[in-house]
Description:
Strand content of chain A: 25-35%
CATH topology of the largest domain in chain A: Rossmann fold
Helix content of chain A: 25-40%
Mean pLDDT of chain B: 95
Radius of gyration of chain A: 29 Å
Distance between the termini of chain A: 80 Å
Oligomer: heterodimer
Mean pLDDT of chain A: 92
CATH topology of the largest domain in chain B: FAD/NAD(P)-binding domain
Largest sheet of chain A: 9 strands, mixed
Largest sheet of chain B: 8 strands, mixed
CATH superfamily of the largest domain in chain A: HUPs
Structural class of chain A: alpha/beta
Low-confidence stretches of chain A: none
Number of domains of chain B: 4
Distance between the termini of chain B: 36 Å
Amino acid sequence: MKILVIVEQREGKLNRVSFETLTGAQAIARETGWTLEAAIVGSGVGEIAKEVASKKVAKVYDIESPQLAAYTPDAFVAALKSFIADRKPTLVLMPHTYQVRDFAPKLATALGRALVSDCTGYKKDGDKLLFVRQMFQGKFSADVAFAGEPPYFATFQTGAFRGDQVEAGASPAPVETLQADVPASALRNKPGEVFKEAKQAVDLTQAEIIVAVGRGIKEEKNLAIARQLAEALGGEIAASRPICDAGWLPMDRQIGSSGQTVAPKLYVALGISGAIQHIVGMKGSRTIVAVNKDSEAPIFEVADVGIVGNLFELIPPLIEEIKKAKAGA
Amino acid sequence: MIIFRKPLTGIERPQMEADVVIVGGGPAGLACALRLSQLIDEHNSKHPDQQLSKENIYVLEKAREIGQHCLSGALLDPRSMRELLPGFEKEAPIEAEVTEEAVYFLTKSGKFKAPITPPPLRDHGNYVISLNRFAKWMGEKVEAAGITVFSGFAGSELLIEGERVAGVRTDDKGVDKSNQPKGNFEPGYDLKAKVVLLAEGTRGSLTKQLVARFHLDHDRNPMTYGVGVKELWELPPGRIAPGEVIYTMGWPLTTREYGGAWIYGGKDNVISLGFVTGLDYPDPRLDPQRVLQEFKLHPMVRSLLEGGKMIRYGAKSLPYGGWWAIPPVAGDGWMILGDSAGFLNSQRLKGIHLAIKSGMLAAETAFEALSQSDFSAARLAGYQRRVENSWIRQELWKVRNFHQGFEHGLWAGMFHAGLQQITGGRGLYARYPATAGHRRLKKLAQLPADGGAEAHLINDYKGDGKLTFDKLTDLYHSGTKHEEDQPAHLVIQDTNICNTRCVTEFGNPCQHFCPASVYEMVEASDSPSGKQIHLNPSNCVHCKTCDIMDPYEIITWVPPEGGGGPNYDGM
């Protein structure tokens, strides 16, 4: 009876959450008396294999192939499927990371086995090993038992075990390097460059000048006027809910009770009526300039400068004047 | 294109076995859970060898916390609470005991006080409560009793096997605007239950499915409703004593609308003020939120509120069709409780005590079924019998024809009500028929363009920001909040009707009757009428008025993602 922990590396770096899974696996090994082994998948990841071998495990497999250099679910599953079919572990444990979430269901399905995902712990009930999963948003815990033949697949939630409590081995465990045979034909994914989540393009709370538009802008193409004004002023563009609702601007540019709360030096409200839901998001602005054709619009109650009029007539000359003034200065 | 919420298909859902599933954590559902727990405790102490478990009894509540969606006046007739928890007054959150009551008939600027309070409106011995706080307290008791409450989970579908209700499906979580699963998608659970108790409140969405599936409205009067729009106000001290109760009739309504106002004095100079407008008014432009604003402009109310501050807002529909409109309340695998069934006394405008009583009677039946391991329709029919033999029927029988008497206006209503008072509730006929309220809406062509006598009740209202408010300002004080990226939970069968027929026939009453500005008609060049319906589902306060009052019966209110909705703290 064997337990296999698949540790995770991303771009040649060990994901430390793997140690949490290893801690859990060590505990299960102690209680069951089963042998604990680990495996790593990648290309040129021998160093990581050695690091894992310093922990209390019987053996570490370094599954190598140039095809595994970049993560793809097809390549990882191809490599692990034949490895697991070959070595026949009873239990395969993984950390519940995004990468594992991506390939583990495919791996389990390829072997015709079930995967118990996102477990918060395990229990031993006589001979049976039970895995604990949350239900109803944590209100309940379900004990899940495997039926049928091994191997059994399970993933552990981050924080289920403590990575700093992983037991070191008395001496380094042997590392066996295996060349995985990943046929190019199995690969349907072509990994591109690793995508680094772009820093949020805009942090409206830091903006000194905001030009916000509301329903008075009428059509999506009229956003251009507001953009030009924002550009002339050197500010950011934002909006009230109807505009973001319509998808004309992304949600992160929405000001108000269901969006951002801002307090810039200058807030220009174009065609915003000023319902309280919007006001609560911008009333702290130092100077508020409002343009609206309805003189009764509540936005004028909080505005320092209020202009009753048609924004399509008022704003273009204003943009010109701002440009002139800036050029003059 | 608006995409509407519906349970996803073709996905695997986690299943869970349950004995009893109670849908809705209001007074009916919570009283049911408490009573059931009491009966099980009693049984277990008498029969140490045959223990019954509470482990598989669940309460589903769509609000994030128990009580958040509970809104009522509220006055509590303590009769059923005394049966459920004798001496409950010692620990329950009660604002005040009713000390003084008055009934006024208002004209535009005058008032006439009824020389004596009509018997049905005598409230000595009743309590002013916040239903939100009361339900929260009951919820704590239920959880302490060992019954699991799943708050933040709505019942989205009934699981029906053949002719039997076999369980409830909870809401799918993490579904985006176009009905596609998001990264945090969690499918709804299939709770397989031996019996499902529907305690969803007025116009429950599962109850609606059940009534339609088994034609439970056959031979019943159509249910009629009102919508209560409420504000909590904090007043300068000394304006109104805790426990002081004021009812008004008349202004701002004309004799063609049914309804009236309440003002209840609570603790700490906070008062509950609201207006119930019958959802059977003729003018489709009438706006119940505006009715409340007009009411506050009456000199009597204005002088009461001046210098005070509005602190909360909310709205909820209530069923007052009465005895003849109540569907069968038990069947194969199901029971219907409280407002979902229509247990409300339309003359006293009280239903909390009946909801609690119905919950207790349903619990007794569910307990019998549990202890006998017999969940057959015949066994559950015990609930129907219990209701018919209880004081619920006695109380409702006396007012069985009350609301119907008002269908032809206030004066005819007064005549019938008087006659019914001296004939034990009968009046002129053994059974007064009723008309569903939405059928009484008149087409614009039949109405004066300026609203005529109702001119002050129709269309949008700006408010002065101190005494009176526009709808969005009021709405802000409901604390309503929903996940924004989810499909619309106001399911409109055919939006073409909104954009064409309804524009000309009724002028889109949804814009006006909705107290939360969920429905809007926006300009659209590609629509032949020049207008197009737009929904703001995250404004919804879960009052169900749209489901009730839309003239074409094409709107179905379904629960949005669990956890969303108003926050009626202290309401």
